[in-house]
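Assess the record.
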Amino acid sequence: MPQEFIDIEKVDLLNKTLDMKNDGYRLAQICALMDMTLMYSFVKDEDLITLRFNAGHPEPVESISCLYPFAYIYENEMKDLFGINIVNINLDFKGNFYQTAVKTPFRESLESDVKDFE
């Protein structure tokens, strides 16, 4: 199954996701990378399409849970582990989805790595 990556602007996420849903795609996964790139992957038949963009910080990212309700799991995870400011999640744990020793541990790790590199 070939994968297609489509770079989008953060503000276009909800509209592009609506297009995917209307075209019959199901949400396969959402993941965050240490550089704050977010990737939303959708599958239909043999097609795998991933929308990607840089989340920035602390600018908000609109939740897609209004279109794919179970996205709240991925979105709360990214909020807790990376400190990504995802807003309007249909079931928002407000930073308490996971209990971690360090608040937003992956963001803390990234900031530490950048300081070590400088």
Summary: The first strand starts at residue 3 and ends at 7.
